[in-house]
Design a protein that fits this description.
389 residues; alpha/beta; Rossmann fold; 2 domains; 10-stranded mixed beta sheet; 5-stranded parallel beta sheet; 8 helices; globular; binds adenosine-5'-triphosphate; binds the ligand Nc1nc2c(ncn2[C@@H]2O[C@H](COP(=O)(O)O)[C@@H](O)[C@H]2O)c(=O)[nH]1; EC 2.7.4.8; transferase; Guanylate_kin-like_dom; guanylate kinase
Length: 389
């Protein structure tokens, strides 16, 4: 395999411009902009500063996504005009690869919203993580019941995205487990600051999925399940989350009302409001083309079996476990080169070589970049040891 010249964002750039790079900072040029990454101790920069060559100034930038905790020593590589790969020195394989998105669709949308320069961090997750699952449907149809059944049968496979809400907790609901209970002022501020993947006013309260809620599940190597309303599902569809969308419908409106009342968690006024909204949700759910699957929750067990079939969990012998990729250490210091969609990471001091394969990456900000593969490259022959991926 021939090595293509690497396009590094590194200190060499500082000879053109006096950016006064600090220790642990690198500079990567994309068009007119230079992205100075690192120096994470300077919390004000959130790990990134942006210099615009066309006006000769540092520009005010909104930095979205979870920021890598430590950026003391890293290499960067411009992958395409829309994202920069950042690989941390002296890190573990499960926390080494990060992407700074500078011109993806998500970033372009957010630029319009914030009216500033925007960049977004997205952590790279190793392995073929399955697509997240969005489950929607009117209140009382049985979404939570079905999700609980899945989580109970496949605890190692699924993780629940814990939403934020401004509604009051019900008896037995725990903060941080069922929801993050908050108040409207705080949540509105957090929405403005870009903390949420989606949010909606549902039955008179604010509900939202934070980017972090989805990332926590991906980091645990699990498939994320979101229980959100139809408005939220539409927002997630427009994002880069690449989820599967499932709508749960009741066998009849009367049965929905019966279930909602029998649950006994809402006041009469709330029941009326939820039933009123259910009519519109049912129309939208069934007609909008937003959902990949519609399941009628008549008999609970039968519906659960159909849900498992959609998720390919019917009779799959491996379904009770997730494949956890072995974690290994990256070299203290290294160089990177690019060969097609593979990044070769070569230790500066040993003969360790690692291949970071980006050919099947999915997702991205907001949320994790999934589908990375890493394996050792044979130090003597240079052959890729694909058996270890
Ligand atoms: N197939 C079913 N047959 C009869 N009862 C059901 C069925 N599925 C769920 N239920 C019951 O209906 C009630 C509502 O279910 P659940 O709380 O799961 O609804 P939900 O869609 O999550 O509602 P919400 O959106 O308000 O959170 C519960 O008491 C549950 O036990
Ligand atoms: N758009 C969002 N909708 C959400 C979220 N979390 C829950 N929900 C939906 O709200 C209603 C009511 O839930 P309840 O717990 O008060 O009964 C239900 O349809 C949920 O699907 C969210 O983060 N975003």
């Amino acid at each position: 395999m021939g090595e293509a010249p690497a396009c590094f964002g590194d200190e060499s750039f500082s000879s053109d411009f006096h950016l006064n790079l600090k220790e642990f900072e690198t500079a990567t040029v994309v068009g007119n902009k230079t992205y100075v990454i690192g120096g994470i101790d300077d919390l004000k920069s959130n790990g990134v500063r942006v210099f615009d060559k066309s006006i000769g100034e540092w520009v005010n930038s909104t930095v979205l996504g979870t920021i890598p905790k430590v950026l003391k020593g890293h290499k960067t590589m411009l992958l395409s005009k829309d994202r920069i790969l950042v690989v941390k020195h002296d890190s573990k394989s499960n926390d080494c690869a990060w992407f700074l998105e500078v011109d993806t669709q998500f970033v372009r949308d957010q630029k319009k919203k914030f009216g500033t320069e925007v960049v977004a961090w997205s952590k790279g997750v190793i392995g073929d993580a399955e697509r997240p699952i969005v489950i929607s449907g009117p209140s009382g149809v049985g979404k939570g019941t079905l999700i609980n059944m899945l989580m109970k049968e496949f605890p190692a496979m699924f993780g629940f995205s814990v939403s934020h809400t401004t509604r009051a907790p019900r008896e037995k609901e725990e903060n941080g487990v069922h929801y993050h209970f908050t108040n409207r002022d705080v949540m509105e501020e957090e929405i403005k600051s870009g903390k949420f993947l989606e949010y909606a006013d549902v039955h008179g309260n604010l509900y939202g999925t934070s980017i972090e809620a989805v990332e926590v599940v991906a980091d645990a190597g699990k498939r994320c399940i979101l229980d959100i309303d139809v408005q939220g599902a539409r927002s997630v569809r427009a994002s880069s989350l690449e989820a599967i969308f499932i709508f749960i419908s009741p066998p009849s409106f009367e049965e929905l009302e019966k279930r909602l009342r029998a649950r006994g968690t809402e006041t009469e006024e709330q029941v009326q409001k939820r039933l009123g909204n259910a009519k519109e949700e049912l129309e939208q759910g069934k007609s909008s083309g937003l959902f990949d699957h519609i399941l009628v929750n008549d008999n609970l067990e039968a519906c659960y079996e159909r849900l498992k079939k959609i998720l390919c969990l019917d009779g799959n012998a491996d379904a009770t476990t997730t494949t956890l990729t072995e974690v290994f250490a990256l070299p203290l210091d290294f160089s990177m080169s690019k060969i097609d969609e593979k990044i070769l990471i070569k230790s500066d001091s040993t003969d360790q070589k690692i291949v970071l394969d980006l050919s099947s990456i999915k997702g991205g900000a907001p949320g994790r970049t999934r589908g990375l593969h890493m394996y050792a490259s044979d130090p003597h022959t240079g052959d890729d040891d694909k058996g270890k991926s």
